Amino acid sequence: MIFLSRKWVLLLNRFGLILAKTYGEKFKSKAFLITTIIFALSIIVGTNFQTIMDSFGSDDGESGSGEGWTVAVYDEEGSVAAALEQQIHIVNQNITIENSDKELEELERQVEAGEYDALLTVSLQDSGKISANYLSESLSTNGNSADLQLSLQTIQSNLAAAKLNLSADELATLNMPVAFEQSSFLETAKSEEELNEARGLVYIMIFVIYMSVLIYSLMIATEVATEKSSRVMEILVSSVPPIQQIFAKIVGIGLLGLTQLAFWAITGFISIRFSRDSLEGGIYSLFDFSANSIETISFGIIFFLLGYFLFATLAAFLGSLVSRTEDIQQMMMPVNLLIIAGAMLAFYGLADPEANFITITSYIPFFSPLVMFTRVGMLNIPLWEPMVAIALTLAAIFIIGWFGAKVYRGGVLMYGNSSSFKDMKKALILSKKEK
Amino acid sequence: MTLHINQVTKRFGGHLAVDKLSLTIPEKSMFGFLGANGAGKTTTFRMMLGLLDASEGKITWNGQSIGYHNSNNVGYLPEERGLYPKMKVKNQIIYLARLRGMDKKEAEKELIYWLDRFKVPEYENKRVEELSKGNQQKIQFIAAILHKPELIILDEPFSGLDPVNVELLKDAVRDIQQRGATIIFSSHRMEHVEELCESLCIIHKGKPIVDGGLREIKRSFGKKNLLIDADFDLTYLHSFPDVVKMKKRMDGVELQIKNEEVSQAILREISGKGFIRQFSLEEPSLNDIFIEKVGASFE
Lengths: 435, 299
Fold this sequence. Notes:
The complex is a heterodimer of chains A (435) and B (299). Chain A is of the alpha/beta class and 435 residues long. Chain A is built from 16 helices and four strands. Chain B contains nine helices and 13 strands. Chains A and B meet through helix 1, helix 9 and helix 16 of A and helix 2 of B.
């Protein structure tokens, strides 16, 4: 018993040492500090986006989105222009209508000279149809022409109604919007309102999981390959069992990643608090955290950890197969493709979470961290579904970890130019226990 | 604390790297492990350390196999030097020593002692990549022995060092052995082995071809070297009976003779022919034995 406990102390000691070294070295590195700060700055910029845009936008009224947009209206009969002046006031207050009695050529010249922003020629035909011609310096779609068109459409309808002698009530019925609501037979479906709410949060979390898995697994592979290329690995592998080294490194980089994410999350939170941007409307309508968000965030953290451990383990053992750090990119290619494929499935799942292939891929370990998370976030699926995916992913982590440790032991003793799957076989043979 | 290598064979696929190697390395001894390039030295070391498993046979130290349970008592200087290039000497050595179970405070103290002893105290806070190759090697050596292991395996410890540093390192190795450690090292430089080791083994193509105490090996080799410097031509001794080999020297010849008695016959032969400046009978050098044994199996 005493021997066993001493062994465990030894084990934990070494694990802790490698973990602390991995974390400490990276944490103190300039690259880490710079990335963290740059991203934090971009978060601050992002959360204050509207304030910053407004400070740029306030002093250029000319091309501003509809501010003081003056339209000259040329109307021979004069019956439409007056109605338009009233109607446009309801639709878009920024547009000023000037009913002009000048000659058409004169007005065109004035538009060209910039005295007016646009020229609208309208005429009412006997059939009750309004025809209009919109002329402006550029065809940039700032929505003003659409607003004008909408207003004219209403005027035309009103004129037609008047012709038919419709009462005010009848006219109101005619213009009444349809009451349109969506619901679904599927009990897993969330209401449209819930979906929109969930989508923003799930979107952010998919992005965070995707980016961190991509970045931190590369970090692990680089770490392992550096130890191998500097040949310090032979000393390490004779001191500490490979499986311990792998997991100590993975946990170390994982903690580093969490430190970074926590720092960014806090920066984002504080920045939003102090931001002058209104939290309603704009981009924030996407990210309306409430109701189901606690559950979604919890699953997000679980799937983040699973995804990280799975890909980090894979990266560690692939890193042990290359002899030079330059070969890492090549070796990591298939891993990156897996991550990217998972992200693409997940983003598709945001739009159509019920799709068959989304359901299927959500159980495949390499995809489930992203895809199952999307389903959990977007649908009301029974708890056993994510649980099965979690169990499968855990199993995959253990299998890759076990297999990886075997390859690692052999791989670190092997130095060659190529970095292929033939090497993996060779590494396995090298580390094989022959009885 | 004896290291037993018992009928150990290692195959890599179809390639036979070590072939039924049996050795006994007594406790607290200094053991030389010689062999041409690719003879299987590094593979044997890796098997001793438990980095590779033997295909057949067993290696035990004090009755136990060597592995992670006793790696705190083992020190290893790999043939391919390896340290973290960007890490400072101090941090790195202490990290490696702690991985082998050493206390941090003690490691710091020992490091200062060794850096002083190797006359490089100023390297404590330098990054390894800033050091010259020879100095990196000293640091590597410190990394192998700092945690006071009882079994030390040094793969080519003297390669790449200048004569002054070789002496520093030899002294260190001797001291560590006197402190009670068992040291096994490989080298291409026969004179280092001759100077340091009580016993040795020469392996060739995975097989031991010479094994035992240095004195016995030399004695059982039988052949002796005879150095003669004279003012007259000695090259005709080449065809003298029982002369195995002849090498010309500046002022004479070096003969390898079958046994000591031959020297007396030669002395009788050349006496009176002219002025003889030197006539000395010498033990064969390890170099001669190595070339003879390894070279013979090349032919």
